[in-house]
């Protein structure tokens, strides 16, 4: 069953130099209990998409200009794009139905409260547990995310935690209300590789155990290959390809996805990397047609207009004119 | 082989905040020895706090090591960098250049690209102003930037272009050795490959030797000839790239390889990952530094620190592990 | 049902699409960026204009002021301002005029009161001859921006003081002391503070320790009593110019500490930046790093701090002069002028005697706004 359905989402940032189309006509769905990886380089709009869903856009700067975000909350399906980001509905959704963890666990934790107190606060915000019960639940959660001696650790302050443990504590906090969807925004970018493996394994376990959907935002295709079911590849605010995690490596369709793979150094790869030419254009130099056209080796005249999303089959769709014929054949 | 060596580091030790006798403080680099051949790339890998950046900075003499020798060989003969004054170092510094991680921070934002690239030439007063300008333009073109970049400022360039400026700047004085401190980890994947390829090409063209500091094993696998694995300032393993990735000798190397996120064919396979995290360098040392996290650790490991010595099964590899000869780590382990 | 596909080609961009600004961040040089940032702060631009006007008026004080600073008429003691008018009961005129004041005995209280003489129109002429003065101490002139042709009647935009001198002229002349005290004082402060702070931050060690302890010691004392003590030490028989210099030195001597600390902090943080390390790795000497990397990056911060220190110094001088231990007559400063309004009676009866305070207020405010604007400007990449 579909848990989250984003349709035609446009998110605009109003900055000094004008309006940025940070997210530009993005559509995707996440099913219950599914892990979806959202991959892209800096400026591709992956984090803004997550913030749009959470209603956490910077106030007065970020704005959902169009589109809908239908979410199957416990109390029925809602269009999150229509809700007041500060209103009670969104507050409820944020705490209860959707949890989020961030790249920098240090800045996401308040240094003046103990870890336990912060988790208790998160629990009590959305339930009427007594303080003692909430504290017991916090310890349980800490234990669940793999923190040894939870009773002692809960009384410690964030600075006494290592980077990996802070990220675990953040996960515990996000889990406090049993969310149906967990959004993880680059959760392992700031930690070492051995810790990254631990966190990814933990996320996967938790997801299975709770039938929770996971939206994993990352710049690292390898991370996606590690735990995702499906992959959404974004470039300059647009979804260029949606496919399964296996296919993204075996049979990438969009020239950008192919380029990413060809330029990705990974274990055992000794042949010369083939980088994508040029650089990601700045937010103000957005091409008129297909955003990838200026860097694309296969670009043609047609690419001066934005390609629609062509469905290759049930699992894969791609926004590239190269698949125009496929679309015709399919229809 | 020996004549070709351009850098020979022996027993390098650095303690941050050590007292006058060189004791106390944080032990950041612990008795590290290695050599580097001409036109070779030696990667130093490790997690944060492993001291990999510190070793690079010791060689560039940005940090003063407390003990050990750093012998640098060039046309001018053989010198020990550790015992040179700032003035004596200046001519040597033309031959050892650095490339920094964050091209944003390593370029002075108030200087034009032309002045930034020319700075090493200006410092060493090499050539006439016209010659310097020609050199700057030709290097900028070599790294894939137009001559018009000269008049621009760092903020007007993208991250990848800035790192190219950093490379051009390091190459102006025709160095022999380039110390690359995580040069691609701040860059986007598509740009990262451009810079890696550029570094590889420049090495062939100019006969450069690289010390390549990185935490990304994929990048290391791509660029290195030999790899040094570091844990808490101590060498765990030093081997050729091929040997290291095919048959790691040290359990920590194995753990690093396993931890690399990569596409898993048997999906949702239950993996057991290395537990714990890298300890702070303040902890009192006894035994092997990795013993606390090592799945194969025994009493011996807790008691006695292993020395780095050739591996019985492959003498080209050096490993610091009591049990290296007995363990078979060559196949990827589903459980440790 | 896991995939959704929008088969409509290229959804039209929604209405909110605004045209992007012509100027592109990436196309501008550092200097252009800074200038843009500064211009974006309207208040700072306005403050800069106000300050330019004030300083121009000070440089050409003799020209702007209609009368010399000591030129007074005792019969006009505490006479009120003469407002500039274009119209009166007798009709309107294109040339502005004033009604001169005359003293009359009030029929009610039998006190002498000043009233405007509505019968007489004294027209204001521009570029009139009057009291002679020296421009910047060099050229003698008697040309004034405006004035009356009558010998007897006087124009006083801001009223008269006790000795019947035009307060506006005195304020303009007073600016010569009040406004320059800030600038010269801050210049000395910057030289002391920047050099000591930079050395202290760059070398560290015992020198840094010594400097920091010394600064702390200086800062322990409350400012005003220390000023008072130091300026009271200035010999009373010194000529006024020397006293002025003495006051500047006293203010600067106590003011450099904040700047030194700021510069030290900046040096410490810059020293650790990668680009300084990159220069060091290239073999640059300490002097080179200071000249090419540290100073250019600190200069703008120093300018901001200095700008914000100017009003503090101006207020310091005003306070000292107000208390009678600053500059002495015949020199004039705004603080000294304010000390004439020392008594409640004076303020109640002759409120215009408070005008110097307005000038201090505007100047201090303008410097603060300007400092804020400069602060935005020096970090153009944010």
Descriptive keywords:
heterotrimer; B: 336 residues; alpha/beta; Rossmann fold; 3 domains; four-stranded antiparallel sheet; 31% helix; C: 382 residues; alpha+beta; MetI-like fold; two-stranded antiparallel ribbon; 55% helix; disordered N terminus; ATP hydrolysis activity (chain B); AAA+_ATPase (chain B); ATP binding (chain B)
Give an account of the 3D structure:
- The complex is a heterotrimer of chains A (331), B (336) and C (382).
- Chain A has 12 helices and 12 strands.
- Chain A is α/β, with parallel strands linked by helices and 331 residues long.
- Chain A has a domain at 105-178.
- In chain A, strands 6-7-8-3-9-10-12-11 form an 8-stranded mixed beta sheet, sandwiched between helices. A 4-stranded antiparallel beta sheet of chain A has the order 2-1-4-5.
- In chain A, helix 4 packs across helix 5 (131-144), helix 4 (115-125) runs parallel beside helix 7 (163-175) and helix 5 (131-144) crosses helix 7 (163-175).
- The radius of gyration of chain A is 21 Å and the shape is globular.
- The two termini of chain A are 26 Å apart.
- In chain B, the strands form 2 sheets. In chain B, strands 6-7-8-3-9-10-12-11 form an 8-stranded mixed beta sheet, sandwiched between helices. In chain B, strands 2-1-4-5 form a 4-stranded antiparallel beta sheet, covered by helices on one side.
- Chain C has 382 residues and is an alpha+beta fold.
- Chain C folds into 2 domains: 49-57 and 170-378, MetI-like fold (Orthogonal Bundle), CATH 1.10.3720.10; 73-161, no CATH class.
- In chain C, a hairpin with a 3-residue loop joins strand 5 (122-135) and strand 6.
- Chain C starts with 29 loop residues before the first helix and ends with a helix.
- Classes of the chains: A alpha/beta (331), B alpha/beta (336), C alpha+beta (382).
